[in-house]
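Design request, tokens follow.
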């Protein structure tokens, strides 16, 4: 079974074709064309332009903006 399907109703989100992240480990989001997230381990990951809108919506749900 595909990991993304197994984790779809959890705090995991695919921000890019290369990155499936745990939303609770986001330290910062930097806006941009797609933007970037900085994770608690210091890694900076790109958010794809196509995923940006759904990512921001998911962030608002998770962090209760």
């Amino acid at each position: 079974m595909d990991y993304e399907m197994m984790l779809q109703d959890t705090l995991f989100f695919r921000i890019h074709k290369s990155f499936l992240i745990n939303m609770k480990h986001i330290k910062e989001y930097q806006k941009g064309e797609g933007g970037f997230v900085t994770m608690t381990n210091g890694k900076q990951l790109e958010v794809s332009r196509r995923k940006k809108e759904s990512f921001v919506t998911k962030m608002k749900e998770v962090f209760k903006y």
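Comment from the thread starter after seeing the answer: thanks! The helical segments are 3-6, 52-63.
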